[in-house]
Amino acid sequence: MKSYSSPKSGLTLWEVLLFTIFLAVAGGASVFFFFLNSGDMKKAQQKYQWEQNINDMLDEVSNEIANAVHFEHPFNGDSRECFFRTSGDDGALLPSVFEEGFVFSDNSLTYVSRTAAVTTGLKRLGRFTNPLVSGCREGKFVRLAPDLLEISFKADSPNGENVGREFSRLIYLRNQ
Amino acid sequence: MSRIPDEKQSIIPLLVMVFFTIVLVAALFVRVYRADRDLGLLRISGRQAKLAAESGINYAIEKMRVVMNASDRAANPGALTAVFFADQLETDSWMPVGQRSDAWFRIISVRRLFSEDIETTPLLDESLQYQILSEGRCGRFRYTTAAVVQLYDLVKNFAVFSSLDEYYYGTPIQPWVESAGSLENFVQANRPLFDSAMLSRQGICHDPQLLHRIFVPGGPSPFRLSGDSGALAANYGSRFSRDGNSPCVGPLYCESPVIVDSHTFAGPVQTALYFYRRGTAQPRIEVGNNAVAMNSSLRIQQAVDSLEGKNPPDVFVDRDSQGYASFIPPWRPDFDYLRDLSKARGIYLDADGKGFLNGKPIDTDYHPGEAHLFSDSYRAPNSTRWEQDQLDEKFVVLATDMRYGGFNNISAANLQGARLLFSERSVYLRGDIGSDLVIVTPGHIFITGPTNVDSNLNLLLIAAEGTALSTVDLENYVKETNPGTDFIHAAREWLIRAVIYKPGAGVYTAESRPQQGTPVNFRRLFAGASLKITITGACIGGNLQRWLDNTEPGSLEVKHVPDGADRLNVRPLSAGVLRLRTRPEQ
């Protein structure tokens, strides 16, 4: 007849080890969920959202500039503003007196139109309204090459948590 | 019945829990690790969709070129309707971009922009513009590109199209390549210039400072070369000069940069690259004060001006690319289509020189023959020595020639209404033609004297290997009859009333003239006199430099005839993108 070994008493080493691991996982999970609810996490989410919004806006600005039919300014070097001529929906070139552009002024980036007489702010660029970015500094457009423009600026988040975050885009001017 | 021990029963759920815990932790690590990669791939997908939409436009342009060249509609640009192109281009199905790509495109709309030709833009015909819409997709991204495509009627718009590229830019690296022994040696010695794309292997310079060093008169050698010879101590600009009048009497297009001194252009000028006015030179345009260049033209001029310490004077109008695209793709005829067309509706000369009119044999004598020919000596932009071509040519002769008893095999009677002549053999050509005619050959066309002088008939010469001059007949005549000076001075002036595709493919003779130490040149060949060439029509492609080098200096002229191909069933047309706009689909 087969005999059974007698039941052991006390904790074995691996039971202690497993208990410790589960305790650590449970503790880690609790800390993680507390962290998700914390103020730091919310600030990080806000920062990400703010950056994402600026990046989306920059994509839109880059696309608009890349589609310029005739890029007027800056011809070379850098400038706080850029101006270009666009084409109509049918592809026809709009009159040369009418130009669109982007201007860094009063710590913000604005989408503007310019005629021989006046420069006015356009209201919308896609889903973005003027000013496209507030609280930006050292904004400039740099004409790196005849068909290459760089836009760059430093921005401060509205809640003051992030100061001097740098944004930039290289824009290929496909019609130059 | 066996029984599982108690301690083993408690192990199983524990092992399951341990397993799932490990899987969960591993999955979290992988997810975090891949998050950035997925975001990156999303951006790449967006860009690929954008590029796919734009590559749809390139596809459309190439397809337009093919269908235009393989259709008799090209004879009348007005017949190139949007429906004609839409039938060839528009599809509902998606086409992959490349072979290993997840991006796709399709052409969704072709329409013609109806506008009048504007007189103030002489290099552009606004009535030949089309709008093409192309969609591109990759992943969940979709973009639409709207392009304005311009058709260029090359003969109508330009007197010279790319035939004077070498004349206006020269061969600025050739002496150094020759001295280095090979292009590779030269590239190795000047590796930084090529690595930074300041200089191409064809010698095209894209950097203002290097351009200045290459072309400033009297400057030192701008290139490094081991064992520099004394002849190369000075730069290319010391021997290059472009003042005086342009050989092109009409609108001019160059695919290479245009370097000028106080030069006079007879008509508007366009270059796919840039203008460079040297020093204090004051170039001038007599008619149609228009100079179109790439956007960097003015930039390069200003950079060089600042190097030279001068302010840019407002002499040379440079409108940059406003309303234009500086580059115009070259025209390439479809020889297979032209061969088939000549068999169906024209004269086809087979490899034996026998003629067929509309597919039926005819007994007209086209004087087939064979010859061994020797060319002038020339240097290409990258030549390491003087080069000379020797050809074994099978040919036919299309001519009014006293040698054939005044028999003209391309008179109106012998053409019998044909307006296209395709010859498998090379063609010798001289004299009158009897009808508006297109002469096509996959070989050479050799012009042996004045051609199509006494009429206003349209003549278009299309030779795949180029149109050359042949002095065989005139040399033989001078030798045999020893005529007086008056005859020679009259006979050396060749007026060619034609539109010529690939002109300047050298000068040939049947007499053996091997270049032994000295290059072979055809100047002062006729009792001390040289050929004078006047082309009344237009030149497309090729390189006129060899004709300029072998005719009397300053004598070669191309006088523009805008309607020089209006009545022909083939017309050189080119298509290029004028402007492009790409936007995400909403």
Describe this protein's structure:
The complex is a heterodimer of chains A (176) and B (586). Chain A has helices at 13-36, 39-66, and strands at 70-73, 77-79, 81-85, 99-105, 108-114, 119-121, 124-125, 128-129, 133-134, 136-145, 148-155, 165-172. With 176 residues, chain A is of the alpha+beta class. In chain A, strands 1, 3, 4, 5, 6 and 9 form a six-stranded antiparallel β-sheet that branches. Chain A is elongated. By secondary structure, chain B is α/β, with parallel strands linked by helices. Chain B has three domains: 50-153 and 574-584, Pantoate--beta-alanine Ligase, Chain: A,domain 2 (2-Layer Sandwich); 161-308, no CATH class; 335-569, no CATH class. Helices cover 27% and strands 29% of the residues of chain B. Chain B has 14 helices and 28 strands. In chain B, the strands form four sheets. In chain B, strands 18-19-21-23-24-25 form a six-stranded mixed barrel. In chain B, strands 1-2-3-4-28 form a five-stranded antiparallel β-sheet. Chain B is globular, with a radius of gyration of 31 Å. Chain B starts with 5 loop residues before the first helix and ends with a strand. The model of chain B has no long low-confidence stretch (mean pLDDT 87).
